[in-house]
Amino acid sequence: MTQTATLPELLEVFLGWHLDHDPVGASALGAPGRDHTLGDFSTAGFAAHLAEAREWLTRFEQHRSAALGLHDSVDVELAISMLRGTILRAEAEPWRSDPTEYTAPIFNATFTTFLHRLHPEAELVESVCARLSEVPEVLRACRRNLDPDRTPQLAVDRALGQAVTAAEFLRETLPAEVHDPRLRAELHRAAEPAIAAFAELEAFLREFPARGDWRIGEARYSALLRDHELLGYGAAELHSRGLRAYADLDAQLSEVAPDWRARMRRLQDDHPPTEAAMLAEYIAETERARQFTVDRDLVTMPPGENCRVLPSPAFQRPIFPVAFYVEPPALTRSRTGHFFVPYTPAGFTEDQVRQRLRGNCRAQMPTISVHESYPGHHWHLSWAADTPRTIRKVMISPYFAEGWGLYVERLFFEQGYFTDPRHALAHLDGQAFRAARIVVDTALHCGEMTREQARTYLLQKTTLTEDTAAAEVNRYCSWPTQAPSYLTGCLEILDIRGQYLRERRGSLKQFHDTIAGAGVLPLGLARKVALESE
């Protein structure tokens, strides 16, 4: 690619490079031609990707120009911010310290193939079998590359939880997705070497002498906030904002119910009796949230959108103790997304299952459903997928994505959706929890809290169950800067909305369609698009 390449040419080649490096992510997006490989997990491959990312960053920085129009300049800045995030993470060499860098793509690749069903079944099985044939080498690379002095036990435990589920997933869950008996038998045969490789990895991880630290430190944390998310401030300021937000919400909750934590814990006793009942109630709440969104004319519904509500996949249950969403493949015409309800891993005790159900009590289910479905993640990511700018379909910011999910919870509170006082209390409780997340995540990675102190803080400041608090802390340790994205993004979107309504004098629906339709941008770029678009 020459320095005189036009911006569309540069973006096209860049996105090809990005998708080639991440074929699993490419398949999830529906990009063609990359469905038969898991990617390059060699040390040379990781080093080459970092070097190439640095070269791409230089190219895009040289392509900045005052002559670019609004949307072209936003695309350039989006590429730069995403490359800076890629480089910051790659420089930490997670392939030396995190075995889920190897295990997670295997599960994700095979699972999403059948989740989205973008091709005839024979082609799906062919691609999954091809990827399964690479599993033994990928897991050998994991065993070769992990450094005991850099790998934290927490990361080992996460990967071990996945490895333990592999045999059942590959022998039972995955083949059950195949209708043709001949193709199912073919998948069974292809799975056996992969199952054996996971058994070897499980034995390896059980004996692995992990001595590493999961903290990324204040410098890297702040760089991710400033250079990747374009927030304009670092970890210390984010921590202070979290403390202030929590104090404000605690005061608001105390006015509603002076004993709000005790009251919410009592409300947790009113939960669905089984996981199947929890699923049924989430389906009903999702339908109710959609109807309210339509009745209030808050957004434009994307043509063909469909939100399926399903039990969480078995391989994710040891990792995600909460509801989550998988978006439609944005590079296709499909607008079917999946809202996954947090079932428990096999082997959980009755008490552990009850704790999970308490964390999804009936008071909390309405606000969770709004966040994950309408007009939360499902609406947002289905609507954003219709942007004509391909880079914005591929590269998304969690600070906008999760910020939007929390913003629409607050929007529904403003619109009078939570008419039941229990639902209103649970909504505010969820906001306070997100403020506590900011405090904990920044403190953990800047060395100001231990995991036990973080768990205790959450139990004292929020209404999380012990099981969920422990799982949340483990998640923060493994996914730095993600947990603060919810409330941070929500507050930024509220600020942008206020300025938009004052200066542009558009309607609430126009604001939502404009800012969400521009993509899932870093918030500095989202502000620019919302306030400067014609």
Task: Sum this structure up briefly.
This protein has 534 residues and is an all-alpha fold.
Secondary-structure blueprint of this entry?
Layout (H helix, E strand, L loop, with lengths): L6 H15 L1 H7 L13 H20 L7 H22 L8 H17 L4 H25 L7 H21 L7 H26 L10 H12 L6 H22 L3 H8 L7 H21 L10 E6 L12 E3 L9 E6 L8 H9 L6 H8 L4 H8 L5 H5 L3 H17 L6 H25 L5 H11 L4 H13 L6 H19 L4 H10 L5 H10 L2
Parallel strand pairs: 1-3
Antiparallel strand pairs: 2-3
Helix pairs in contact: 2-5, 3-4, 4-9, 4-23, 5-6, 5-7, 6-8, 7-8, 10-18, 11-18, 12-14, 14-17, 17-21, 18-19, 18-21, 19-20, 21-23, 22-23
What does this structure look like?
By secondary structure, this protein is mainly α. It has two domains: 7-206, no CATH class; 225-532, no CATH class. Helix content is 66%, strand content 3%. It has helices at 7-21, 23-29, 43-62, 70-91, 100-116, 121-145, 153-173, 181-206, 217-228, 235-256, 260-267, 275-295, 350-358, 365-372, 377-384, 390-394, 398-414, 421-445, 451-461, 466-478, 485-503, 508-517, 523-532; strands spanning 306-311, 324-326, 336-341. Strands 1-3-2 form a three-stranded mixed β-sheet, covered by helices on one side. α7 (153-173) runs antiparallel to α8 (181-206), α10 runs antiparallel to α18 and α14 crosses α17. The longest helix has 26 residues, at 181-206.
